[in-house]
Amino acid sequence: MRIEANYAKAAQFIRDAAIEGAHLAVLPEYHLTNWVPDDPEFSDLCGQWETYLNKYRTLARENNICIVPGTIVEGHEVAETKEHILINVAYFIDNKGEILGRYQKKNLWHPERPHLTSSTDDPHEVIQTPIGPVGLLICWDLAFPEAFRELISGGAKIIIIPTFLCSESKMRVLIELTGTLTDCSEYGLSVNPRSEALFLETMVTARTFENTCAVVFVNAGGPVGSSSSTYAGQSRVAVPFLGALGKETKDSNEEGMSIVDLDMRHVEEAEKNYKVREDLARDDWYYVYRHGSKKGDARL
User: Fold this and answer.
1) Worst-scoring range by mean pLDDT, 107-116, 141-150, 182-191, 244-253?
2) 3-state secondary structure string, the chain?
């Protein structure tokens, strides 16, 4: 939970990306605090969320780069009940340092539920950004195609997913020591030690094809050169026709950075070919993907 050191490392990655000409930098979920909700200091650190959000706003403005600073866990007091809650939030900050949108994690992973408050049935909202219409999701949202469909129906063409997914049986030791998540059962690991990597590779590629969109998936990685197999990694940008891009990170579980040229023509040509968005927009389409009560705007 070295929050200032973690911020400094993240800031250096972002500066390096800006020097390379990147228009957008994306960080992993829980990159500032890790996920240690039972640690006595965790809640206090989450109370510093606004300080670090403002630091990222300044960083974006100074380096002329859009930033999705992973997720930041925020501590809030509910006015009506005085209850203290924690929420897990992703922001889109433009290159002028302005917050264009935010998303509070909806689909909480099972061990998160005693600690975090979900956004429940709040709609998934599309954010208009300098790089195009963007949707934000977080980690376990990846498992729910309904979240993608709602964003795609709203016009999103790029889905950004900060993530903290781990792999392999070493996580069982880390649970006892740090409270870190285990993301695959003993049975799953016994039949395939790479089960979580397979999950991520398959899901990210499937989502980009079935929604004719680009997916920016950024997962936590372990220290370079150390025994980092407890982290799933596999950070990548995925587009239709090509699949995963980002050679430095897409097949690695070590901390690092990939600079990816995202050609949105792949997305547009995929839509011409598969016509997914065209079908979703039809008045007589069989399924509905939006919150509400009317045909074409129905609750998920």
Assistant:
1) 182-191
2) CCHHHHHHHHHHHHHHHHHCCCCEEECCCCCCCCCCCCCCCHHHHHCCHHHHHHHHHHHHHHHCCEEECCCEEEEEECCCCCCEEEEEEEEEECCCCCEEEEEECCCCCHHHCCCECCCCCCCCCCEEECCEEEEECCHHHHHCHHHHHHHHHCCCCEEEEEECCECCCCHHHHHHHHCCCCCCCHHHHHHCCCHHHHHHHHHHHHHHHHCCCEEEEEECCECCCCCCCCECCCCEEEECCCEEECCCCCCCCECCCCCCCCCCHHHHHHHHHHCHHHHHCCCCCCCCCCCCEECCEECC
The model's pLDDT over 272-300, given as tens digits with 9 standing for 90+, comes to: 999 999 999 998 888 876 655 444 454 44
* Percentage of the chain lying above the pLDDT 70 cut: 89
